[in-house]
Amino acid sequence: MKILVPVKRVIDYNVKPRVKADGSGVDLANVKMSMNPFDEIAVEEAIRIKTAGKAEEIIVVSVGPQKAQETLRTALAMGADRAILVQTDEEVEPLAVAKILTKIMEEETPGLVLLGKQAIDDDSNQTGQMLAAMTGRPQGTFANEVNVDGDSVTVKREIDGGLQTVKLTLPAIITTDLRLNEPRYPALPNIMKAKSKPMANKTPADYGVDIAPRLTTLKVVEPPVRQAGEKVADVDALIEKLKAVGAV
Q1: Which domains does the chain show, CATH number per domain?
Q2: pTM exceeding 0.90
Q3: Subunit notes for this chain (predicted)?
């Protein structure tokens, strides 16, 4: 079985994003970039499934600029076998990504697609669900636990009310949540080996996908500064304060 793992290059989660002066977007100049944390979890889970003898090959794919090669090399250093870079300097929306992944799935025929439930830059949480709808494959979103058994996979998923367990027939699509695992740090020998692992370079046009945006960003602004709290002497004073601001 092949496992396909899409990964995205995003601003490192330790970096505070800066808005451009003209409000047209987020300033990416001289900003540290890294793999989306949810995608790291997906790569780690794919490696664990392969180590358990339930998969033969892990393919990582990224849709983004040339520098996304660095993100793919990180995934290869973690333990993926080969990579596909679909290169574009344009901002690609989740629907276009799902269309590209659909074409790649037709070529690679993976038994399992593991991807992060969302990217921390846009927080869309859409690609996995769109991909499942387009391919007609069963999906297990927000995975807290994944167990592959023969021609099926059991997914324990996080929902508002607790945990829900679903059993999917392979091939299937799974999106990973934070508590699924703890991603490994690539060892230096594996980082060196990753440089010689195969990486195919493609473009959206190679897959016949139109990535023209369907949404227009009107303005990006910093969130408002939270107002300082105020202590009150008792419940009566609290109620009066709430009435004064129109909360009750």
Answers
A1: 2-244 (3.40.50.620)
A2: no
A3: Heterodimer of an alpha and a beta subunit.
